[in-house]
Amino acid sequence: MTMILFTLTTFEAGQYVDFEKVVCITGDGNYSCIHLTDGQRLLVSKCLEQLEPRLPHRQFLRIHKRYLINLRFVESIFPKQIKLTDGKVYAVARRRWPSVNSYFKQKIRR
């Protein structure tokens, strides 16, 4: 059974997206780009503020005003940067770094 994120209205058509296949979501103004595990990107006309409440908060983390990442795809953490399994490195906002860093330190201790 697929966990459905929501119906996305892209420029092509409505689609269903599985949470497990979303690596990250990048925002640019009133649009967001959803990056999937197969390398596909979906451009939607919703800002991150509209998408974030619809995501499972234990699986997704806002690290920057432009980035929401899926915690299951974190490969490594650097000072103020996170590398995902797709090879891309995303900046962590200065004001979000203390809480992001603390979150991952707690995960390591468990």
Which features characterize this protein?
110 residues, alpha+beta, OB fold (Dihydrolipoamide Acetyltransferase, E2P), 2 helices, globular, LytTR_DNA-bd_dom
Q: Report the span from N to C terminus.
A: 30 Å
SSE pattern, N- to C-terminal: EEEEEHEEEEEH
Q: What is the CATH architecture assignment?
A: Beta Barrel
- Class per helix and strand makeup: alpha+beta
β-strand number: 10
How many strands, which pairing sense, and closed or not: the largest β-sheet?
5 strands, antiparallel
Uncertain regions spanning at least 5 consecutive residues: 1-5
Residue-averaged pLDDT, rounded?
86
Estimated radius of gyration: 14 Å
Gross morphology: globular
Q: What would CATH call the homologous superfamily? A: LytTr DNA-binding domain
CATH first level: which class? Mainly Beta
The number of distinct structural domains comes to 1
Number of helices: 2
- Kindly estimate the percentage of residues that lie in beta strands according to DSSP: 35-45%
Task: Tell me the strand order in the biggest sheet.
Answer: 5-4-3-7-6
Determine the fraction of residues in helical runs and give it as a percent range: 10-25%
CATH topology: OB fold (Dihydrolipoamide Acetyltransferase, E2P)
